[in-house]
Specification:
This protein is α/β, with parallel strands linked by helices. The protein has 3 domains: about 140 residues, Globin-like (Orthogonal Bundle); about 100 residues, Translation factors (Elongation Factor Tu (Ef-tu), domain 3); about 130 residues, Nucleotide-binding domain of ferredoxin-NADP reductase (FNR) module (Rossmann fold), CATH 3.40.50.80. It is about 40% helix and about 20% strand. The chain has a 6-stranded antiparallel sheet. A 6-stranded parallel sheet has the order 10-9-8-7-11-12, sandwiched between helices. Helix 5 packs across helix 7.
Length: about 400
């Protein structure tokens, strides 16, 4: 991390707050968002489906604030967290003038929740610590914005894209092919990264969502593959499923949506020649298909296992596409699990194994000791893999995963 230097007193004081932040961090993060969302312009920058009592964003923020306090005397440990936040901020086009709003909300939340424990010394230390963190983030975000502006086909801010075509991939997933309205080139990306789209959902002003790019880079279009999630009838502002339902029901060829440049800290390590294991559950296959297409298009893919888990054939997206990719390329090994195969799903034709992916199966089927693992899917699926791979002594640098939503601690 770079930026101004934190004073030793600030480091000691902030570090001393780590235990109480672990205990009361969720209260603080929820209160911070309550204060922050009093400003409607700021509120619209956030995906509101990740908020509320059951929302994942307050939990994610609580974990990040605690990690920052606990590691403030060894800030290199915070590097991956900083990069993840910076990538997310640039995907939302966050600007430097918005940082003071967040700082005031954080300090206000600390005062409200901690009460007398929020002494003048604590508040002064956290004010300096926040300013330091904000400066670090703004520096990195400027680098990303500058790179996007210089990259062929790149852009900063929102760019209009036309929906070229819509392809049903399963009963619950549709792919949307996006081409720029200005007919210009599109910026390349790293397989595994995402796009952020801004939708004008009736009655909601603008709704912002992230979707992994599901095609290989280097084309004249992007493809996102979206699972429809039905929102609850009495849902609050921008509930879960609102954007996906709108895309599935209302968006078709010729419609225009706004897109920010590709972003994300989850992507394929193209320099590695290790065996690869790409694991996905449900719609988590989208970044894996991007990786698989890229590996095949490169011409000399390493030995790769593409392992996908679906409920059944009606929910299984891109089945034939993946099969075709594997058939044309010897070192690609597709393995499909159906948890609840339907009577029409034929073992050996539509899927390879019934049930769920397990660590016992993985140990016997792939070269765990040598492979590089990438995975994405439901939280339980990912947690099983994260904990299981660590238990098999796979080093963290060979365990890579993507969350659809705010990052949460899988190892907890």
């Amino acid at each position: 991390m770079t930026g101004s230097v934190l004073s030793p007193r600030t480091v000691r004081t902030v570090k001393a707050t780590a235990p109480i932040l672990r205990e009361r961090g969720l209260e603080i993060s929820r209160r911070m968002y309550e204060i922050l969302f009093q400003d409607e312009e700021i509120k619209r920058l956030f995906n509101q489906s990740h908020h509320g009592q059951s929302g994942s964003q307050p939990r994610s923020l609580a974990g990040a604030v605690h990690a920052y306090a606990d590691n403030i005397d060894r800030l290199d440990e915070c590097g991956p967290m900083i990069e993840r936040i910076a990538q997310k901020h640039t995907s939302l086009n966050i600007q430097s003038e918005q940082y003071p709003y967040v700082g005031r909300a954080l300090i206000g939340a600390l005062k409200d929740v901690l009460g007398q424990a929020a002494t003048d010394e604590v508040i002064a230390a956290w004010t300096q610590a926040y300013d330091f963190l904000a400066d670090t983030l703004m520096r990195r975000e400027r680098e990303i914005y500058d790179r996007n502006a210089r990259t062929p086909g790149g852009w900063v801010g929102w760019r209009d894209f036309t929906v070229d075509r819509v392809v049903p991939e399963s009963d619950v997933i549709k792919s949307f092919y996006l081409r720029p309205c200005d007919s210009g080139p599109v910026m390349t990306f790293r397989p595994g990264q995402y796009l952020t789209v801004r939708l004008n959902v009736p009655g909601q002003e603008s709704v912002v969502r992230n979707y992994s790019v599901s095609c290989a880079p280097g084309r004249d279009h992007y493809r996102i593959s979206v699972k429809r999630e039905d929102p609850p009838e009495d849902a609050p502002y921008a509930p879960p499923g609102m954007a996906s339902s709108y895309l599935h029901e209302e968006v078709g060829p010729g419609d225009v949506i706004q897109v920010s440049a590709p972003a994300g800290d989850f992507f394929l390590d193209e320099a590695s020649r290790r065996p690869l294991v790409l694991l996905s559950g449900g719609v988590g296959l989208t970044p894996m298909v991007s990786m698989l297409e890229h590996l095949v298009g490169r011409g000399t893919p390493p030995e790769t296992w593409y392992v996908h888990a679906a409920l059944g054939g009606r929910q299984h997206a891109m089945k034939q596409h993946v099969r075709d990719l594997a058939t044309a390329n010897g070192p690609i090994h597709p393995v499909v699990f159906y948890e609840h195969p339907a009577p029409e799903d034929v073992l050996g034709r539509d899927y390879d194994l019934p049930g769920r992916v397990t660590m016992d199966w993985l140990k016997g089927a792939v070269p765990v000791a040598d492979a590089h693992f990438y995975f994405c899917g439901p939280r339980g699926f990912m947690r099983m893999l994260a904990i299981g791979l660590r238990a098999l002594d796979v080093p963290d640098e060979r365990i890579n995963f993507e969350f659809f939503g705010p990052a949460e601690a899988l190892y907890a």
